[in-house]
Give the backbone structure.
Amino acid sequence: MPARQRRSGFRDFWNGSFLYSMLLGGRAPKRLLRLAPPPLPGNRARGEAIVSGKLVCAGRALVAERPDWLAADLSLAARAELNSFEWLDDLAAVGNEQAQTRARALAEDWIAGNPTWRAGAWDAEPTGRRLAAWLSHAPFLSRGEGDRLGPQLLESASRQARHLARAWRTARPGLPRLAALRGLIYAHSCGLIAQSGTAGAARALASEVATQILPDGFHAERGSHAQFAALSALVDARLALEAAGANVPEAVHRAIEGLAPALRFFRHGDGGLALFENSNIEDPRAIDEVLSRAQTPAPPPTRATSAGFERVVADRTLVLLDAGQPPALGFDANGHAGALSIEISCGRERLVANCGAGPRDDSEWSLALRATAAHSTLTLEDTSSSEPIPGRVTRRAASVTSTRDEAEGNVWLEASHDGYVGLFGFLHQRRLFIANDGHDIRGEDALVPAPGAAVAPSARFAIRFHLAPELQASVIQNGAAALLRTQSGQAWRLQVAGATLELGESVSFAVRGSARRAEQLVAAGTAGAQGISVKWALKAIAAAR
């Protein structure tokens, strides 16, 4: 048995022991010392579903009367989401007495079923998220008694906080560890455990920031969701530290100053986020609230050098290009193989997108959505440019590069990756031109034999343009072009030379936990040993009504 598994087994044995349960005991406060930062806006429709008896976690519909918190058939992701209590945001969005009663009943049911440590329910990440949820929703859970959580909730929360103070390091590096530390800082700030530990928790947060935030201010997990989640955790932790009169480490201030413009980098005109690297759109109201709490008005950069992204704004048109490697080892548990994928929007309407993140699960859907074919880029022989597997990315593009030139508002991007060199001997090169009015976007995708590589004599390629679910598309000119029309009446024409266009089915997980039917345009063909070049142009032919 590997040493890591032995340590984990011993830790679980110790945590489940009577002696450890005794160590978690102590006097619970009669009331909170202060309130935690308020929660983010929730989804009223999801909240109403919970009130009516349906709770959806990681795509799994559960009975919300008395859920089995540790059901054996629950995936790890569904179990973590269920036990996190972050769905309290949705119940609070309903806000009536019925929703409040359901929230309180669910919290009390969890306490009754998990009075002391249990694997899954008391893991560091869901415990941190649960404490943050309970403390930020204290007025909602307290049945009109101000911040006076009932003694049962205070007793359980205090025990969980004592455990978290010992266990936060066991959370997976990256966003899970930030979530655990935010919960611990809330616990100190609100008086569940001694305030003397606040400084140590703040130093731990600063240490995590140093390893997780890249030099350009982007999170090491790269995706837009990572920017949102990291910024949300840090601004709330900062608010809690400030409320407690504790010192906020300078590293935390600097990280927030970098993450806020990084989050703006990924916002489309509809206010939601781009779908790169395990991301969903996220609620624009929640994004606005997080940015407001950040108090950092810096605009988004045009390039993310360390994270590997390009951003082009031309009038009302936005083009985003992923020109980076998958997340580094340790941050790649949900990494995607989306090298050189693009997203395009005009105004508040999306045109070309990626498929998004699955139900944050280890299911077949999740793996399929991490593959290159779920992104608006080129695939070769139905193979991904990097190889995502459950928990990490194995084979990966070693070199992903991009250059940028601008003149009179026009922008030229040129990028390449070597993810197919080892398998087929080809470099994938993508060139983009975006005119200053945003109505003319031209591209070229080329497969170029890599120097010294063994080149496949022939290989089937497919250049995918995944379309937003709201778009209507039709192929014309015997596969040489396609017409796109948005709900508002915008019309665009996609012209292709060097391949044949086909219209096929796609899927969009733009909204968390919700799959929508969509379509994709695929320019397909065969590359010989000399490679191939496919040119395409996306041009506006009619403005919105």
